[in-house]
């Protein structure tokens, strides 16, 4: 079209929608140019222009037997044709009916010019199918699903989203005709959709992606693919976990999620719960940990995947091979950690050929990735709970992992990793005399030294670290057959544990102090800790004066341990305490002993 005619089109389109006769005259005498088509495509963004431009007669000029040849020869012209078609057919069935005979030609342009036309071609195909059954049926009849699989081989994030929307749109027709989408296509789509937005992109972008993929996951044929490719479930779980726990993990770098976003995330989580439960795991996102759906789940497959894929993520022991691989490793650690809740599952995970404890320890020591280290620590914690697994964890150098977690890096201590390490230490020691012996006597086991070093700066430590240190030391004293040397700062942690708001931790604290005071050195350490904390008897008097309630279901046991502690202090330190301290302790023992302990003369 001559320049003046292009200007004439621009003037018409700049006016309010109308001028059908003038446009029809122009369409009969023009040769398609990218300049005019760009103007037409932009005009079609306005819904009122779409019916008019559909009737104007431009489509027969650009959609004919030479369309593919034209598209192959002129990239910019083809791009504007596709943009025009995409906008023209949106929500206008009459225009769709005009374009439908050329659906295959339009879709085939996706691979022209090294894929640079893929996005407008997929967008036009989606608008031909969305809420338009004739378009959906034509897509299925033409077997364009195979073309779609080729289209996304090198697709961008936006193209993946559109491909997902196309598949979701045409899936009912597929089901009605007993056709199946290939496993390869589903695998590619799900993997790309779950990881492409990542945790660095906007929350809205991720939610849009999940809105596209979740309807697809409800289909039985797709779930079968998930059952065979467990890494798909892991990737989706990881992506969702990161989003759903974003406040705690501090991955919202710019803004906190608002209430609407939280509601959308919760909806996504609820949807994923049902899907993943049908595959392997029932994950309760709002009240973790996860539980296994049933004992028919083949945990061996998950373990094999993790064992095969995790360790190659590390090139030189410190450098991750790629962010995507590390994200999947995090997901695997989280997933396995949350399903390791039954002895039979733990037995499968730690036994040959999987021995998942080894790559978990390696990840903590060598990966340098904080999220992966945290997930691996949680996995090791759950693996170490059954008494039968503790030897295997010790042999896998789990104590070395603990030392790594509780030792400050440079000048900073990672509080969350330290807490994870102390929790792991506690379960390693609890009910395992062999592990306690190794902790206390093995010169190569430096965990006790690392803990003592950590506790030297007690005043500057997070209260949660102090509490977890106290719990670990109580587990040691409950289990160890050897004499446990008292650490003054460690005893202070156990005393602090008696002030913990959780009644279970209070009880552990009093038990630990009663056990520690069984020797003169231990009683002296407890006495000094109470002196540093305030005075010797006030805290014990407070516990003995309490009345049982629902909030303190084991108060009676706590009071019994307090009385045992008092008896030990009086037995070993009668001459070392002040007269007032001795008198106050004797008074408490005589008032509350109730015959359980021999009363002492004041």
UniProtKB/TrEMBL annotation:
GO molecular function (one): guanyl-nucleotide exchange factor activity
Residues passing through the membrane, by range: none
PANTHER family: RAP1 GTPASE-GDP DISSOCIATION STIMULATOR 1 (PTHR10957)
Protein name according to UniProt: ARM repeat-containing protein
Native species: Microthyrium microscopicum
